[in-house]
Structure formats: structure tokens, C-alpha cells
Amino acid sequence: MFGYVRPVRTELRVWEWERYREAYCGLCDTMGRRHGFLARMFLNYDFTFLAMLLLPDLGRRERSRCRCPARLWVCRKSCTPRHEMMDLAADESVILTYWKLRDGVLDGSFWQRQGSRILSRLLRPAYRRAQRACPGFAETVENCLEELHVLEREQSPSLDRTADTFARILSAAGPKTGRPARDRAMEQLLYHVGRWIYLLDAWDDLEEDRQSGQYNPILKRFPDGAQDHREEIARTLLHSRNLAVSAYALLEAGDWSGILENILYFGLPAMERSVFAPSDGAGRRNSCMHRRMDR
After folding, report:
1. In this predicted model, what pLDDT tens digit does every residue of 228-273 receive, in sequence order?
2. Which top CATH class is 9-280?
3. Which Pfam families does the entry link to (predicted)?
């Protein structure tokens, strides 16, 4: 995933920010416990959002303590307690990271491809463990990415087909609970957030892909000049956000609701503004989160 799905801290209450930090640190601890130290290095905002969606309402007082590798394991930080849904979020995070690295082997410069190849090989044992725990999700990710590679090889100009293929990956991350209404709402929420991520990332990479000649669906859709179609991209992003919010309204998130609503109502629009603004390198995606979380 990409690190776009983040809250706006100034709009969170103090206890909500602390809960968010606890979810972040809890997921980091779970990824390390289940998949080793390397897996922790790929933790980002998107995975934390996924974990909070999957976790039940644990109550404000229920928490645990874990050692922080960013502080050389000397510092013990508050984190969410161990839970099977946190294990699931960690497994799915590793699966998504592995296939993102494998996708990177096909794209980018020579040295970028080599870096992705090395990291994917180092992460492979963790991926195998996660694959055994979540075989259905791993198969969905692999199949959808293969579909996406076919569209890329065909130089598809369709935003909907490419975004749909990626969105189906994220929509499969929610486990079935046996409650059709809830499962459908979760699937739609994750689907439209996934679609939003894919299209925003395509716009974020627009100039880089133009210069390198890499496939970008927006460049193929608007070969006459993508920047002239900024409003069209903004409208389709708004459409995905609105549908995600509508699906979220059908879910019960308990104490997580304030944080999740902050992300959907404030965080996603703020990230859009950052990506659509003139590039200054500030406020965009950042996978190295430990430093930010410690502030």
C-alpha cells in the first residue's frame, strides 16, 4: 500500500490521537512478532487504517505495552492488546507489501528494480507464513495484480478498469462475519478507498512516469495533457470518497469511530490537496512512520 490514508492530527481529540498511536504501535509489534523485524519496516498509515477497521471496539482502557525498535527496544509504549484481527491485519499487510515489491521489480530504474528484488527475497519467508494464514487473500492479490499487469502491458487508457483491479485487492481484506449487511458495507468501504488510493497515486506519480516512460493510466487516458483534466480526476476521487463514507455509515466502529471519521472526512481530502498542490515534497506519503509517531 502507499501511505496516503492518514488522519489530520489537529482535528483529533487527545485520547483519539493516543488510541491511533496505540493501534499503530500494536500493529508494528504484531508484524514483528509474527513475521520478523524486516516486516516492521513496511508499516504505514494505510495498514493502521485497515487494522482499526478490522478490530472490534476494545474500550479506551484496554491496552498493552510493547517495546519500540525505533528506540532500540529500551522504550516501552502503549499499544492495543493482541487480538486475532490484529494478526489478520499484520498478515494482510505483509502480503500486500510483498506483492508491491514484486510489482516494483517490473517498474522503475535499474537500481530501483534491484532494490525491490532484494527486499522481496528477504521478505519471502514472512510472505510464506502470511500466505499460509490467509491463502484466499494472497490468491486474490496475486490474481488481481496479474490482471493489472496485463492492462499495463496493453497500455490500457481506462481509469475504471485499472482502478477496479486494484480496488478489488483491498475489498478482499475484510473477513466474512456471516452478517451480509455488515460484510457488504465493509467490502464497499475498502473497495472505494482502494480505488481512491490507486488514482491518487497515479496522479502523484504523473511527472515521474512522464519522464521515465512508465505506464500511468492518467497519461494514457489524457495523452493531450493530463494537467488540463485535473478537475475530472478530482471529481472521480470525490466520488470514491463519497461512496466510501456512505459505506462506512453502515458500520459500527465504537471507540474507533472518531479516528476513522477523521481519516475519511479530513485526512483523505487533505492528502488530495497535498498531492494536487505544486510539488514541494511536503505532506505526501511517508512509509517511515516511527519518527512521526514519536513526536
Report:
1. 899 999 999 999 999 999 999 999 888 899 999 999 999 999 999 9
2. mainly alpha
3. DUF5685 (PF18937)
Contact 94, 31 (CB under 8 A): yes
pTM for this one?
Answer: 0.90
**Structural domain spans, the chain:** 9-280
The span from the CA of 125 to the CA of 118, in Å, is 13
